[in-house]
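dumping this here so i dont lose it
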């Protein structure tokens, strides 16, 4: 049995909160710059230029890439050979979020109660997803999620007969309804299968996959490419001003489902679809 202390987890989560908010994944930056170069019209080209300048300024000044530093979504893949000592996992994660958001001067965006709406003051609690896996490692991913994009996300409980065309229609419907709200160009996470809550989690996990990495199954990689082409044909464009880049990537994750259903979740990410990972 390997021991990992609650303090190690807290420090890792704190580091990742700051890192994810200041530095976009390299392959996402590459996509943004390529999309900027590919815009033909003046307005979308200028908007994409501003987005590139913003990324560079955040890196140079060590500032967040967006003022909405998000709710901290934390994925932990914990090896079954690990014993956590010195505290509870949930408390360790929340302590890391509080430390990262406070020391990193990141905006605190979480309210304790969805109706009475008092700010918790330190961006806790995190949204924590724990998966037990083989081995003695602990892989932590922090994916801060702004709600300009989260609010545009949707779930469709399709019938099996609607099949692949129904999935494509659902994704296009979600993106069309989102319009300029999620600060396009977007990253579109799609979860297909499982059940109501399971497909939503798949869609969120899809947003954490590197945008340069297509689905390993050729069938789903082809579906991702087709969806990206169709989403971009909608012409919403950078920040909704029209143009070629409505989305930078579409990522699909799937899971087994019931014979009577075809759940589809679309988790919309913005051009700052942030995530950073560390392995203890
Ligand atoms: S949608 Fe994204 S880029 Fe727009 S305000 Fe929210 S976090 Fe920032």
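and the seq i came up w/
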């Amino acid at each position: 049995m390997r021991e990992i202390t609650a303090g190690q987890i807290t420090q890792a989560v704190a580091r990742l909160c700051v890192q994810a908010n200041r530095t976009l994944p390299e392959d996402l930056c590459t996509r943004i710059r390529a999309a900027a170069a590919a815009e033909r019209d003046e307005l979308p080209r200028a908007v994409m230029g501003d987005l590139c300048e913003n990324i560079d300024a955040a890196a140079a000044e060590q500032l967040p890439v967006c003022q909405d530093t998000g709710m901290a979504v934390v994925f932990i893949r914990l090896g079954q050979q690990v014993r956590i000592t010195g505290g509870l996992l949930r408390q360790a994660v929340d302590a890391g979020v509080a430390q990262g958001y406070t020391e990193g001067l990141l905006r605190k965006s979480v309210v304790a109660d969805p109706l009475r709406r008092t700010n918790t003051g330190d961006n806790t609690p995190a949204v924590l997803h724990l998966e037990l896996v083989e081995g003695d490692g602990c892989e932590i991913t922090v994916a801060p999620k702004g709600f300009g994009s989260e609010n545009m996300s949707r779930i469709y409980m399709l019938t099996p007969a609607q099949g692949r065309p129904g999935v494509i229609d659902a994704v296009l419907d979600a993106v069309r309804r989102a319009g300029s709200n999620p600060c396009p160009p977007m990253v579109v996470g799609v979860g297909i299968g499982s059940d109501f809550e399971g497909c939503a989690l798949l869609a969120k996990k899809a947003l954490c996959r590197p945008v340069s990495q297509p689905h390993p199954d050729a069938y789903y990689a082809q579906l991702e490419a087709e969806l990206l082409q169709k989403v971009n044909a909608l012409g919403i464009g950078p920040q909704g001003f029209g143009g070629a880049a409505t989305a930078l990537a579409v990522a699909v994750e799937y899971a087994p489902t019931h014979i009577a259903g075809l759940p589809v979740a679309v988790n919309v990410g913005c051009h700052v679809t942030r995530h950073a990972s560390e392995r203890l």
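The chain has two domains: 2-20+65-145, 148-273.
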